[in-house]
Each structure stands twice: as C-alpha cells, then as structure tokens.
Amino acid sequence: MKHADVVIIGGGQAGLALSHCLGRAGIDHVVLERGRIGQRWRAQTWQSLRLLTPNWLNGLPGSPYDGPDPDGFRTKDAFVHDLETYASRWQVPVECGVEVTACRWTGGGFALATSAGDWSARAVVVATGHCDRPMVPFTLDGKNGPQSIHASKYRCPEALPTGGVLVVGASSSGVQIADELARAG
User: Which of 86, 118, 91 is nearest to 102 (CA)?
Assistant: First the structure.
C-alpha cells in the first residue's frame, strides 16, 4: 500500500494549484489523475472552446500570466499546454492513468482503492470539479426522433446529424455552442 499525507484526486487546475501550495509548505502529497493532466479539458470539451475568463485571470500559484495578450481568451488546447507546463515546472507529483474507485474513512485517515493499487492518506482533497458526471434529464437515441447530448459530448457542428438544433441553457457553454452552430449555418 502506498501512502501520502494528502491525496489530491484530479489533475486539473485546482489539483495542480493545491499541489504547488502543499509542496511549498513541505507537505507530503500526491495527485492522482484518472487520465492525463487536464483530462476533462482534453476529452469533454468542444474543439473551438475558449476559456470564459481573460488570460490575466488564469494564472496559477507561482505562475501568473505573463504573455502578450492579457485580455485575450485562451483556447482549450493552449490551456492544457499551460497545465502541463505548470506541472512540469513545479514538479507536481502527479500519477496519471490512476482512477480512484473508492475512498473511505478508517478512523485515523483514509483508505483509497485505485486502478493502480491501494493508498492511505491522512487527508483527501477531491479536485475533480463540479461537472464530473453530467446530468441529462432525458436521453433520446436519435433513431426515432431527436438526439440529446450534453455539452461535454459536443465536439463540432460537423459531428451533429443534419437538421435543426435546440441548445438548452444560456450559460457559458450553451452560448458558445449556439454561437458556433449559428456561424456554421
């Protein structure tokens, strides 16, 4: 069984930022990421996604934005590259390809079951974000009627079946997707 004082579940910006802070404080820790660094940005976003916050606001602890376009908006690919660079620069102890399948309190700490063996920790931080499992209130298969997909499954206009599209939701994802679909005709 492997051990760390703190196990961080999730290798996105929150998990990497916390790792940096713990490392600077000398606290033993590990980041367990089920995919690759920034996996959700890689696999659950559409091709043309841009961040909703300006570049100057997307710095992480120890690495403020210092590029040429502080008021611009990063593409998802550029942001994933930033996360990889950050993890490398700060030597984040991240183990990729390790999925946490269970976590339970043992009275004196936590026991974690993972796809790469068991871990124990005094503390666990779940840094997977609020969109870990999308909620779709109804699902239509598209064979006998409309198709229903979540924004995390949308990739580009060309990947959708021909015909009209209804985007439900006018928050950031819905607005960006609706704009892209309108521009694509």
Answer: 118
The per-residue pLDDT for range 68-109, each reduced to its tens digit, is 999 999 999 999 999 999 999 999 999 999 999 999 999 889
Token reading at 107:
């009275």
Per the listing, tokens 């606290």 go with 27
Nearest to 12 by CA among 25, 89, 35: 35
- Phi–psi pair at 139, nearest 5 degrees: -130, 130
Side-chain-side CA neighbours of residue 101 (13 Å): 8
Residue 171 CB burial class (10 angstroms; 0-12, 13-18, ≥19): exposed
**How does DSSP assign 115-172, residue by residue?**
TTEEEEEEEEEE-S-TTSS---S---BSSSS-B---GGG---GGGSPSS-------SH
Residue carrying the six token digits 């499992």: 133
Nearest-CA neighbor of 60 among 35, 40, 90, 34? 90
Digit-coded pLDDT (tens) for 120-167: 999 999 998 766 666 565 555 556 556 778 888 889 999 888 888 888
Q: Tokens standing for 106?
A: 């043992």
pTM: 0.78
